[in-house]
Structure formats: structure tokens, C-alpha cells
Amino acid sequence: MTSFVITPMFGSALQFAFEKATIEGKITISVLALVSLFSWTVIISKIFQLARASRVSKKFFEAYHDTHEPLELQRQQLKFEGAPAYELYTAGVEELNYQLEKNPVHLDGARKISASGFDAVRISLEEAAMGEALALEKGMIVLSTAVAGGPFIGLLGTVWGVMETFAGIAKANSASLTAMAPGVAGALIATVIGLLVAIPAMFAYNFMVTRIRAFTQELDAFAIRFATQIEHSHVDNRSIAEGVSAAIEKSLKKRDFDAKQFIPAEQV
After folding, report:
1. Residue 253 domain-assigned?
2. Is the pLDDT of residue 243 over 50?
3. What is the DSSP letter of 235?
4. Are 104 and 111 in contact (CB under 8 A)?
5. DSSP summary character for residue 82
6. 214 pLDDT band (50/70/90 cuts)?
7. pTM, two decimal places
């Protein structure tokens, strides 16, 4: 019963105030309605985006933790579209495969990459992490604008409406409460609408910023772990001296082999 009485009362108050608002006040309310539309569009889309990212990321990390080799998920052809960490993993694997194909280092019958190739992999991981962070933050400027600008736009409409009201009273030479009340009510509605725009945007912004910060920290931690695993399993970690010594030894063996091919049979 209480809600039935309160709701029409607030509705009639807003309707009365809107009807008494000046042209400037109605323009202000229209601007706030447009800001609210953009704000709620971002809120709803970000809720779905973050929820999906959280759900798919959980599945991705479960699958990744069950592997013992960085390229195993790719070999299994598992996909986790929508997980920021998976996009980072994909970028790292693509660069690693490129380095293994184009600039391999053969060590004990296995293909590995050099230190410079590993630097390229790390750069690709950093670029992917930055791109995913920007994708997560996309649209947040709309919420921050609604939070910071909504009340001020409403206040501008209110002050303008009060100024118009007092100017009208001065011209009419009437200072009664009955003459002032409609104009003041029409002016105050702009502030009310501004707060109704800013308050939901503020709560949504704070919640989403916290979730996005958690995602970015998760991405940084995964990039470090993934790069470390690649370094342990696919990077030639020999020192320069060892690499030069191995290259010289390989060259000598090849030379000896080639020399034997030209030794006449009667001299063998």
C-alpha cells in the first residue's frame, strides 16, 4: 500500500516540475537523458562483457594449468574466445611458432629460438596485454563523464531556472510563494535528473574499474608466467661462449666429413 501511494506521488511531482520547467531547463533535461542513455548502454554492455570474460577466463586457466608445455593447448585446438588471457596466449604462440619456423636454433635435435627471438615473443605478449586492457576499458570514459558531469549539468539547469523564476517575479511585482513555487520546482527537477544520471553511473564505474584492474593484474601475471615457461622449454639458454664453441665444433665436423668424401679409395 505504501509503495502504491509513494510511486504516484513522486511521478506526479516530477511531471508537475517538468511541465513548469523553462525551455532552458527542458533542454538541460534532454541533454541529461541523452547522457543517461549512453551511460546505461555502456553499463549493460560492460556487464555482459566482464561476465563473459570472467566465465571464459576461468575455463581457460583451468585448461592451461593442466598442461605442462606452452604449446599444448594449441595442439589440442582448444579455443576460449572472450577470455583476455587467451588472446594474450594466442599472440604469444603465434610469435613463438614464427620464430621456430623462420629463425630456429637446432640444439640436440630439437628446434629452439634465440634470445632475440624470445625478446620478440615478449614484445608480442606486452602488446597483446595492452590491447586487451584497452578493450576492457573501452567505454568507461562515458561513465566517468556521467559521474562528473551529470550533477553539474543539472545544477546549471537549476540555477538557470531559478534565475528565470526570480526575473519573472521581479517583472510581475509579485513575491508570493504561490508565484515562486512552480518556477522553483521546474528548476529543481534538472538537479534531480542530474543526480539520477550520476548515481547509477558512479556505482557501476567503481565496480567495473575494480573488475578491470583485477583483469589487468591477471594478464600481467599470466604474461610473466607464460614467458617464463617459453624460456624454459623453447629458448636456447646457452651462453655466447658455449654457442660459439658448438658452432665451431659443428663446422669442424662438417669440414672433416666433406674432406673424407674426396679422399681417393686407394688412400683409405
Report:
1. yes
2. no
3. B
4. yes
5. T
6. very high
7. 0.73
Residue 208 lies in a domain: yes
Among 41, 49, 50, 48, which Cα is nearest to 146's?
41
- Residue 263 buriedness (CB in 10 A; 0-12 / 13-18 / 19+): exposed
Helical segments of the chain, H only: 2-20, 23-65, 72-75, 84-102, 115-137, 140-172, 177-234, 240-261
Does residue 138 register a pLDDT over 70? yes
At 139, which helix (H) or strand (E)? none
Q: Which residue type, as a one-letter code, is found at position 102?
A: K
CA distances from 239 to 21, 114, 119 (A): 79, 11, 16
Does 173 or 99 have the greater pLDDT score?
A: 99
Number of domains in the chain: 1
| Angle, helices 84-102/23-65, rounded to nearest 10 degrees | 50
Cell of 41: 548502454
Please give the angle made by the CA atoms of 198, 201 and 204, to the nearest 5 degrees: 150
67 against 244, higher pLDDT: 67
Measured distance CA(11)–CA(66) in Å, rounded = 57
Count CB neighbours of 72 within 10 A.
13
In a domain, 39, yes or no: yes
The CA-atom distances, in angstroms, between 261 and each of 16, 212, 251, 264 are: 104, 66, 16, 8
Give me the pLDDT at residue 193, please: 86
- What pLDDT, in 10s, does the model give residues 79-117? 888 889 999 999 999 998 888 888 777 766 678 888 888
Q: In this structure, is residue 171 part of a structural domain?
A: no
Q: What is the pLDDT of residues 16-53, one digit of tens each?
A: 566 666 677 788 888 888 999 999 999 999 999 999 99
| Alpha-carbon span 73 to 80, nearest angstrom | 10
Parent domain of 90: 27-158+197-263
